[in-house]
Design brief:
Structural class: mainly alpha
Largest sheet: none
Helix content: over 70%
Number of strands: 0
Radius of gyration: 22 Å
Distance between the termini: 56 Å
């Protein structure tokens, strides 16, 4: 039996992988035309924005990996001693921390932010390197 919905979903996933990079490329080409940047200025801007988005992606991955969990839990305990919460607010916090739907949502959101910013960073830095090759040739 032919399953058209599975084929459609597979096609949409492949299309998303192509549309996002094309959008980024068109965006950066449009910045040259709209802002009237020279090639060297464009190279510098794309590199810095790519570097910043790479740092954001790296920060999201580090926070998501749990590497800073001990550090953040220490500050949370310090905050609790400085400004104690009421029992009802503590119960709500415990319920939110144990809610699987919210945990899954946070995980999916952080992975989406990581993937988008990493892809944006790689593509933007690649465009700046291509611009350097064009500038020096």
């Amino acid at each position: 039996m032919f399953d058209s919905s599975a084929l459609l979903n597979k096609g949409l996933k492949k299309m998303k992988k192509v549309i996002f990079p094309m959008f980024i490329i068109l965006f950066w080409i449009g910045t040259i035309a709209f802002l009237h940047l020279s090639l060297l200025e464009w190279i510098n801007v794309t590199f810095l924005i790519g570097l910043i988005s790479g740092l954001i992606a790296t920060s999201v991955k580090i926070i998501h990996s749990g590497f800073l969990h001990l550090f953040m839990s220490g500050f949370k305990k310090l905050n609790m001693t400085m400004m104690p919460k009421s029992r009802s607010l503590q119960q709500v916090d415990e319920e939110l921390e144990s809610n699987e739907d919210i945990i899954q949502f946070k995980h999916n959101l952080s992975m989406m932010v990581y993937k988008v910013t990493l892809q944006f960073s790689i593509l933007t830095i690649s465009l700046s390197v291509i611009g350097l090759f064009v500038f020096y040739n």
